[in-house]
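Data availability (excerpt). The following record was deposited with the supplementary files.
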Amino acid sequence: MALTLSQKQWVEPAFHRPVNLYQLGNSHGLSVTLADFGAAVWSIKAPGRDGIKDVTLNYQDKAQWLSNPYYFGVIVGRCANRIGQGRFALNDKSYQLDRNDGANHLHGGAKGLSTRFWDSWSWQLADRVGVTFVIASDDGDQGYPGNFKAQVSYSLNDAGELAIDYSAEADQDGPINLTSHSYFNLAGRGDVLGQELTLAANHYLAVDGGLIPTGALLAVAGTAMDFRRPKAIGLELEALPGGYDHFWVARDHKVAEPLLLATLRDPKSGRTLELLSTEPGVQFYSGNFLDGSLKGEQGDALIRHGGICLEPHIHPDAVNHPGFPSTLIKAHQPYRQRSLYRFSVT
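Predicted structure:
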């Protein structure tokens, strides 16, 4: 087993300090580049029948990581996804969060955790190499209650598994719901419409025009939302005018050990990604807002449906839906999540 770990600094005038970049690698050619700005995945290069390709979306102009309009690769929070009107009530008090998605709150706010430098260090064990990122957030930051701290550790092993282990807590009661926002294209370029997706979920959440859950849990059977068997992403895409941007519910609670949520496969290259998580569901987003105005690292335009997100977390807007699994964490109670991204060639 030959696991590798390296580090370098990248200097860009747009950033107020150098960006620390870490590269994890295994003996099969799988490599992961991580950055301390946003605790982000900048690149995952994976082997396939057509060689080694970068299977995540990124920017040709690295300065665009500063504004990162598509949230490429970052850890988002304190709450991932949307909170309707950016409002919730807790302990007889109302909270107004930053509204950065029309009238709603998205991915922790315009200046959330994904927009900041995290402290970081790398480490190596006999069976894996990794990087740990930590960050603190003051009471009232983006409207959230309590002084907050989070730790996110990435680790890679020789079996092709990239693990992301999350922990967090605050000194006041409040919602916590973290996730990773990487975009995957297992072909390395072009669109993902011919790639096959499987989602281990019988239900999904109905949403309103602002993509806020209505509270209704709908069966996938007989609809374009049914991915219980492998299906090309583009096969029934036209049934959803805006594309896929919904939450699939695998179970009604978190679990102690990661279970399979999703499988993505590119038939041409044979690259396969399995997502396992402790979380009850996954947001599948089909890259609907990529508009071709920016270029990826290889110089290709970042086109609509050029990549998909598979974001494991608790249901969006759960803080406003008593029937959903709760994102509310008591003061000093630990939050935990573990997700595995397992790469292989079939």
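Summary of structural features: The two ends are 21 Å apart (CA to CA).
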